[in-house]
Amino acid sequence: MSMAFYAQADVKIGVAGPFTGPNATYGAQYWKGASQAVADINAAGGIKGEKIVLVQGDDACEPKQAVAVANRLVDEAKVSAVVGHFCSSSTMPASEVYDEAGILTITPGSTNPQITERGMKDLFRMCGRDDQQGAIAANYMLDVLKAKKIAVIHDKDTYGQGLADATRAALAKRGTKEVLYEGLSRGEKDFNALVTKIGALKPDVVYFGGCHPEAGRWCARCASRGCRPNSSPATVSSPRSWSPPPAGRSSPTAC
């Protein structure tokens, strides 16, 4: 865990998320966004003449580390507000710390519905919830891809499984039962058994709830077995996933 402190300033805002580990790309993106926003605000005179400074807290998308980061931001950095965390599994426990301290918190990427359904008056989010995304994905698979057989897999994380469950529920409301519902572990590298199982079922569509590290390895394993699904967090891969696509083409993806 790392905690970077910057020069003394009038208003301190914490930016907490994965700045190391497999999901560090997300932390880097919203750190850049927050930094640019602060630069613009400070150039315009700050907040009532007071300058803003950011305090970075790295949780690596690990729940225990997220709690430690939250405690440091509150007790040591004395932040006035927090932008974070990113992973739902980190935001859930860290938000308990901020709520107790009365710290305004805005998560840019945590989609689990329970995050904002626990009565925390100072906690907000800037993204759609799993139940919203799940309904959109289900409708797309059924109405656009015209899928009849759908496999749903996830990474067993709060975000990935929550999104897969929401999509599964939305499919059920439309009268569709998935042909497979299965989880893979974060950090897993060998997907042979799962690829074989899905290949035997021959689904029209595979929906994956999770983040890009597992999605990337999953795609690579599929490609090595003769299927080439484009995959990304919360991905829908089309029917061509389970047979080699035409030369120069890959199967379409919807997120």
UniProtKB/TrEMBL annotation:
The keyword Signal applies. Transmembrane segments: none annotated. Residues 11-228 form the Leucine-binding protein domain. One of its GO terms (biological process) is amino acid transport. Keywords: Amino-acid transport, Signal, Transport. InterPro entries: Leu-bd, Leu_Ile_Val-bd, Peripla_BP_I. It comes from the Bacteria. Belongs to the leucine-binding protein family. This is Hydrophobic amino acid ABC transporter periplasmic amino acid-binding protein. It comes from Klebsiella pneumoniae subsp. pneumoniae.
